[in-house]
Amino acid sequence: MTQTQTQTWQLLAQHRAQTADVSLLSRFDAPDRFQAFSAETDGLLLDYSKTALDTTALSLLERITAEAGLADRISQMFRGDKINTTEDRAVLHTALRAQTDEPIKVDGDDVLPAIRQTLQQMESFAEALRDGSIRSGTGAKFTDVINIGIGGSDLGPAMATLALAPYHDGPRCHFVSNLDGAHIADTLKGLDPQTTLVIIASKTFTTIETMTNARTALGWLRATLGDGASAHLAAVSTARDKTSAFGIAPERVFGFADWVGGRYSLWGPVGLPIMIAIGAENFRQFLSGAAAMDRHFRTAPFRENLPVMLAMTGVWHHNICGYDSRAILPYDQRLARFPAYLQQLDMESNGKSVALDGSPLPHDSGPIVWGEPGTNGQHAFYQLLHQGTRVVPAEFLIAAEAHEGDLTDHHQLLVSNCLAQSEALMLGRARKEARAIAAKRGFTGDALEQMAGHLSFTGNRPSVTLAYPKLTPFVLGQLIALYEHRVFVEGVVWGLNSFDQWGVELGKELAVSLLPLVDGSAQAEAYEAKDGSTRGLLSKLTHPHP
Ligand code: F6P
C-alpha cells in the first residue's frame, strides 16, 4: 500500500469532502480560531487560521506525518545520516549554523571543527576587505565585489544581500548569474577593475554559465591589471583542484563539503558576499536566527511547530484540496528575490515524480511556486487570485516595523494592504451585494444581472500570513530555515528525496551536444539527426547549415 492509499489519507479526503462547503469566515465563529490556528516562535508568527484546516484535519495530518516517520527523518537529517540516497550524501546545511559543540559526524568524523575554521577564514577575509587591510593589486581599497554563480550559488546570497540592505556598510555587492553576455556586460560597465573583487562561486566549479562568466571577468581584470588580476579573485567551491587550475590562490578559496546542497548553501562560504556587505557580526545573527528555527523545528509539538504547520497547509492544499500552485507574496520590497529563491528551494527539492525507491509516486508532489512583492502584485496578477477559476493559496509575509522610521505612513498603508488582501480572498463578495453595487452604478434588468456576475467574488480562498517584528539578519535566518524545513517535511510526507536534482541534467547534456550545431562546427549528419522543430529553429537562429 502506498502512502496516500492509507486509511488516514482516505479519512482526510472524506473529511474535506464533508466540510468543503463550510465557509472560511464561519470558522471564526469559534472565538479562539486565530489563537488555535496560529503558532509563534521567537517573535515570528504563522497565522494559518484563514484556511479550511480544522481540528479533525490537523489530527489526521498529524497521523500522516507519524506514519511517514517524520520524527525519525528529522533526527536522521540533523545527525548526518546519508538521507540523500541517490547521491549517497548526508544533508547537513544545519551544521553550518549549529550553535552547539556536540559532534555531528559524517563517516565517523566530526564536521564542526572544519565548519568553524572556514567561518573564521571567511570572517578574516570579509573584515579585511571591509576595513581595507586587504587591498587591490594597485594598492586601492576594494569598493565593489562581483559574485559570479548561478542557482544555489547565486539566488541565496543575492536574495539575502538585498533583504539586508539596511545593514550594508561594506563594499557594494553585484551578482552575475545568467549565461547571457548581457548580464556580465551590463554589470562590468559601471565598475573599475582596479577596485573590484570577483568571487567565483560554484559548488562543482564546472557549471557552464559560471565558468563562462568567470573567464569573461578574468579577461576584463587582466586587460587592466595583467598578472595583478589574481589579487582580485576569490573562489567558493567544493572542488579545490579545479579552483587552483583556474589560478586562484589556495588562501582565497573557501571550501565546503558535498553534504551541503547548492540550494541550502548560503549559510557557509556561498554566503561570503552577504558577510562582506553586512559584516561578520550581522552574519552571525543571521546564522543564529536559522539555528533558533532549527531548535524550534526539532522540539516544538506538532500544532506549535511552524515548519511542520506550514508544510501541513501545503499538503492539505495540494494533495487534498487539489490546488496546484502557491503564491509567495512578501509585503516587504527587500524580499523581492525571496519568491525566486524559494522557487529553487522548493521546486528543485520537491519537483519529483518518483519515490525514494525509484517507483512512480501515486500522488502529486511539489507545487508550482511563484510570486512577487506586494503591493506591486496587486496591480498585476491579483485579479486571477481573486476572481480566476483556479484557487491559489497565498503566503503573505509582513513586518510589524519598517527600517524607514521616518516613513511610517508608507508602512501603515503596506500593512493595511497586506491584511486587506487576505481578508478579501477569504470574504469574497456575494451576488446580492454585487447586485446592489451594480444598481448603485445605474444598471437595471438584464444588464444589472450581467454586471453582478462581474462584480462577484467567490471568496473562501485560503492564505497564510507570516508576521515578524522587522526584517533583521536574525529574522531573515529564521524565515529561510522555516522554508527549508517546510520543504523537507513535505518531501517526507510525499516519500521522495528532496536533496537531489536529476531533472536538471538532460537539458545540460543536450545544450553541450547542440553547441557544434550552433557554432557551425558539426557534421551534416548531426544536423539531420535533430527533430524538425530544432532544425527549423537552428536555421532561423544561426548561419545557414549544410
Ligand atoms: O543545475 C542545477 C544546479 O546543479 C543547482 O542545484 C545548483 O545550485 C546550480 O546548478 C549551480 O551549481 P554549482 O554551484 O555547482 O555551480
TrEMBL record:
SUPFAM superfamilies referenced in this protein's UniProt entry, alphabetically: SIS domain (SSF53697)
Gene3D superfamilies for this protein: 1.10.1390.10, Glucose-6-phosphate isomerase like protein, domain 1
Family matches, as NCBIfam families: PRK00179.1
Family: Belongs to the GPI family.
Entry annotation: catalytic residues: E348 (proton donor), H379, K508
UniProt-listed GO biological process terms: gluconeogenesis; glucose 6-phosphate metabolic process; glycolytic process
Function of the molecule: Catalyzes the reversible isomerization of glucose-6-phosphate to fructose-6-phosphate.
Catalytic reaction annotation: alpha-D-glucose 6-phosphate = beta-D-fructose 6-phosphate
InterPro entries, per database record: G6P_Isomerase, G6P_Isomerase_C, Phosphoglucose_isomerase_CS, SIS_dom_sf, SIS_PGI_1, SIS_PGI_2
Source domain of life: Bacteria
Compartment list: Cytoplasm
Keyword Translocase: no
GO terms under cellular component: cytosol
Pathway: Carbohydrate degradation; glycolysis; D-glyceraldehyde 3-phosphate and glycerone phosphate from D-glucose: step 2/4; Carbohydrate biosynthesis; gluconeogenesis
Keywords for the protein's UniProt record, in alphabetical order: Cytoplasm, Gluconeogenesis, Glycolysis, Isomerase
Protein name: Glucose-6-phosphate isomerase
GO terms, molecular function: carbohydrate derivative binding; glucose-6-phosphate isomerase activity; monosaccharide binding
Enzyme Commission no: 5.3.1.9
Keyword Nucleotidyltransferase carried by entry: no
